[in-house]
Amino acid sequence: MFLAQTPAPPYYACIFTSQRNDKDAESYNSTAELMDELAAQQDGYLGVKSVRDQNGLGITVSYWKSLDALKLWKENAAHKKAQEKGMKDWYSSYSTRICKVERDYTSK
Q: pTM value?
């Protein structure tokens, strides 16, 4: 489905906005797939959606049951390694925002 399936609020969203450079696209893509797989195995994971435009600007929003679950994902060893590689090789800039979702609305 196009929209992430999340429970009734409250839950948390991690919004990662990044500007990709043109380095090592193959390694980036394989690592991104692996991170999606690993995150899905993490306790408290609720889903993820990601988009990137033709100029390399991307937004990934992952959803989590709690701040503790999100913190465990941030501390995951493979995820930390990917973060370091991203800072060094893949992104010219990025930001991360953590939000508590208190209400949500969807169309049927």
A: 0.88
